[in-house]
């Protein structure tokens, strides 16, 4: 079965100026992926007639479907309808159905239809009107040489209603669509290049209708296996077999699948083992606590925290020895150990974890550079430590440290 490709064009100077975010193309991509249409390219362009016509023509040359959002309003800077009409040589004419839609909207709001809004009922002759139930600008569907151009308003809630009710069902009827399935494997604790080396033999043996993508994040890599086929059940079974064949190679790095986040995986482990946890944070300023408590139901296992940013708080609240700080410093393995022990005892939990480091951008030395973080876990009668070197800016160092701490907890619980 032939794959169907699409391109998405968002129109608006406000997007190019960075005044608003283009959320439309992301949402449209997700909807098209669900029905088996592959998005080949998406881009934003200015409100200029020649730019619009050039972009649409270029996309038509490459893909089966072209989606255009924006530029359908009633003002002079809204040029999409006129540009498409000129490009397809379709003169504008009054569409009676579109006029009735606009009149109905004004009646509902108790207002009289203005001439400028009446002009919105003029559509390119030969195009198909797409009803806009949430606004005054109708969408347009153009069939051209076995290809389709769809023009929609840029207002997200208007566009989404059109896509959901009218356009997606119409696409399903118009094209014979393949099945597209994604399987996402969540890994942590191994970099992208090292992971690719580990699974190279498996990846190289994948059949041509299955493709692997690496999606790196903060101390994590998502592996997305995408399959294209004709029968969902057959494709699902084949992909499950491939995942099962891969897992033994990377099992120690895999914490979950799909949309599962590392903090959710850690929470599941704590709940399954009926364990409680508390956090003592210095350089991360409560970020680890935030990640843990962002999970619904985390009160089942999370007790609380101490943000011991200054040494006095480490000493008074976590029972860290002043001599330890004096001899080894606040950022040290020894201080991290005492912080972890202190929080475990203070809040009477099964597992206490601590982080102390240098988030930056200032405060680093040759011996203790910016981004260096010591963490410790007090659990099961022992204290384990780990030193990491975070790679970036202050915020990135904080976030990276929080994710690495969650993985430290995960590994500790698995080994218990």
From TrEMBL:
Superkingdom of the source species: Bacteria
Domain MoaB/Mog: 7-174
Cited SMART domains: MoCF_biosynth
Family annotation (SUPFAM superfamilies): CinA-like, Molybdenum cofactor biosynthesis proteins
InterPro entries: CinA, CinA-like_C, CinA_C, CinA_KH, Competence-induced_CinA, MoaB/Mog-like_dom_sf, MoaB/Mog_dom
HAMAP family tied to this protein: CinA_B
Family classification: Belongs to the CinA family.
Name of the protein in its database record: CinA-like protein
Species this protein is from: Reichenbachiella agariperforans
């Amino acid at each position: 079965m032939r794959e169907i490709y699409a391109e998405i064009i968002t129109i608006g100077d406000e997007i190019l100026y960075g005044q608003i975010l283009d959320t439309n193309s992301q949402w449209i991509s997700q909807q098209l992926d669900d029905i088996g249409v592959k998005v080949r390219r998406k881009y934003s362009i200015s409100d200029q007639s020649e730019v619009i016509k050039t972009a649409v023509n270029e996309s038509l040359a490459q893909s089966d479907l072209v989606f255009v959002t924006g530029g359908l309003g009633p003002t002079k800077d809204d040029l999409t309808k006129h540009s498409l009409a000129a490009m397809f040589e379709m003169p504008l004419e009054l569409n009676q159905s579109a006029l009735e839609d606009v009149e109905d909207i004004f009646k509902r709001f108790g207002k009289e239809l203005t001439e400028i809004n009446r002009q919105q009922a003029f559509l390119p002759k030969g195009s198909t009107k797409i009803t806009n139930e949430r606004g005054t600008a109708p969408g347009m569907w153009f069939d051209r040489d076995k290809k389709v151009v769809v023009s929609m308003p840029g207002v997200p809630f208007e566009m989404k209603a059109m896509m959901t009710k009218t356009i997606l069902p119409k696409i399903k009827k118009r094209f014979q669509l393949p099945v597209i399935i994604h399987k996402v494997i969540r890994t942590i604790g191994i970099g992208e290049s090292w992971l690719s080396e580990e699974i190279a033999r498996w990846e190289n043996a994948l059949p041509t209708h299955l493709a692997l993508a690496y999606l790196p994040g903060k101390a994590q890599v998502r592996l997305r296996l995408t399959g294209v086929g004709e029968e969902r059940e057959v494709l699902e079974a084949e992909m499950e077999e491939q995942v099962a064949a891969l897992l033994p190679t990377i099992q120690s790095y895999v914490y979950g699948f799909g949309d599962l986040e590392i903090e959710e995986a850690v929470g599941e482990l704590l709940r399954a083992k009926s364990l409680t946890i508390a956090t003592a944070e210095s350089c991360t300023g409560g970020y680890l606590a935030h990640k843990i408590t962002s999970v619904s139901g985390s009160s089942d296992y999370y007790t609380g925290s101490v943000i011991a940013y200054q040494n006095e708080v480490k000493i008074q609240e976590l029972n860290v020895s002043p001599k330890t700080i004096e001899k080894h410093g606040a950022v040290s393995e020894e201080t991290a150990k005492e912080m972890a022990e202190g929080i475990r005892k203070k809040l009477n939990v099964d597992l206490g974890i601590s982080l102390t480091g240098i988030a930056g951008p200032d405060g680093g030395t040759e011996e203790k550079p910016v981004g260096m973080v010591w963490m410790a876990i007090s659990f099961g009668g022992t204290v384990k430590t780990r030193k990491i070197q975070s790679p970036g800016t202050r915020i990135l160092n904080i976030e990276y440290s929080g994710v690495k701490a969650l993985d430290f907890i995960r590994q500790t619980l698995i080994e218990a």
